[in-house]
Design brief:
Number of domains: 1
Distance between the termini: 19 Å
Order of helices and strands: HHEHEEHHHHEEEEEHEHE
Shape: globular
Oligomer: single chain
Number of strands: 10
Radius of gyration: 21 Å
Structural class: alpha/beta
Length: 358
């Protein structure tokens, strides 16, 4: 697949949404986070499984595309100085879909730089929906131990969790995600141990960014109140009659430096896959209105590389000037044609990969 074909065209996306309306029978079956993740490793890897908690993040991608953008910007400024008339039409109305990255310097999409007024300019996300509107939810049907009405409620609460963990303005500003945590089964000891540690010692397997989107207010601030999203929810029956709800959603966050008058907009792109098990209380110790976490994965672009601080740390032009590209393979963060499992495998052991655009 070429780089220009990596993002799903709108017509294919609409067809997917129509087909997904009826839900899917292919949701994961194992209700246990430990069993699920260890089982996946046994199927996909030749060596022995490691520790159960592969809530460990995939390698974060540092953005090589920033260097290309910087070069094209310099070329563009030179052209403006020499021949201003030639620039007319390069920027259009600022609302291009950006689904294909052209290599032509005659009308380089990289020059469609985001601004505080148009923070998604030059990005496929400009055509995406806002917040939970960008998450496709299938029709409910009786599944496992739940009636159709109960499944509908579980789907609504699953969307509530996504909103509370990845879209809530207070959480994005670095506050503790209390509403999201309240939806997680308090009797799931391994996950509760993670949650109790994540905000005190946000390193390695305890990184809160695995589940929650957070930015340090002292470093950056979000531009406006819109987060663009694209993704879906599916569900099916797991063991013990549980209803497993799987979400796979990409979030796009525009930010500027937390400095008065800052105008340069950077974007952090986060794709999360979360499997939520709505367990039968007759078979699993749980609380009403809560789910058990079966698995969670995250793949982030321009969110920082190396040891976690518990916050996404996007880079700006001055930061990128002193850093080289990542050592991992190139990847389009807007590409949703590749599953999260495949993306994890492709990332390999590199600490930082290379994104083709933001």
């Amino acid at each position: 697949m070429g780089k220009d074909e990596a993002s799903i065209p709108d017509e294919e996306w609409e067809r997917f949404l129509r087909e997904a309306e009826a839900g899917t029978q292919g949701a994961p079956q194992e209700p246990s986070a430990r069993a699920r993740m260890a089982g996946r490793r046994l199927r996909e890897e030749t060596g022995p499984p490691g520790g159960w908690r592969t809530h460990q993040p995939p390698r974060r991608r540092r953005v090589k595309a920033w260097y290309v953008a910087g070069l094209l910007l310099a070329v563009g400024l030179l052209v403006v100085a020499l021949d201003p008339g030639r620039v007319v039409g390069w920027f259009g109305d600022g609302n291009g879909d950006g689904d294909g990255v052209s290599a032509s310097l005659a009308a380089p999409p990289s020059l469609q730089l985001p601004t505080p007024e148009q923070p998604f300019r030059g990005s496929p996300a400009a055509q995406w929906d806002d917040g939970t509107a960008g998450i496709s939810v299938p029709r409910a049907r009786a599944t496992g131990w739940m009636t159709k009405g109960q499944v509908a409620q579980a789907l609504d609460q699953s969307v509530d969790f996504l909103a509370a963990s990845s879209l809530d303005p207070d959480v994005l500003r670095g506050e503790r995600p209390k509403r999201a945590i309240a939806l997680i089964n308090p009797h799931q000891r391994d996950v509760q141990d993670y949650l109790s540690t994540a905000f005190r010692d946000p390193r390695g397997k305890n990184d809160p960014l695995l589940l929650f989107s957070r930015f340090a207010q002292t470093k950056v601030r979000l531009v406006g109140d819109v987060v663009k999203t694209r993704g879906w929810i599916t569900f099916g029956e797991g063991k013990r009659g549980a209803v497993e709800v799987t979400s796979d959603v990409t979030y796009v966050y525009p930010v500027v430096r937390a400095v008065p008058g800052s105008e340069e907009v950077a974007r952090t792109i986060v794709r999360r896959e979360t499997v939520m098990s709505w367990d039968d209380p007759a078979k699993v110790v749980t609380e009403p209105g809560t789910f058990s976490l079966a698995s969670y994965k995250v793949d982030s672009t321009n969110g920082g590389c190396g040891d976690s601080t518990g916050y996404f740390t996007p880079e700006f032009t001055a930061d990128r000037a002193v850093k080289g590209p990542g050592s991992g393979p190139e990847e389009d963060p807007y590409d949703r044609t590749t599953s999260m499992d495949a993306r994890m495998r492709e990332a390999g052991p590199a600490e930082c990969g290379t994104a083709t655009r933001t």
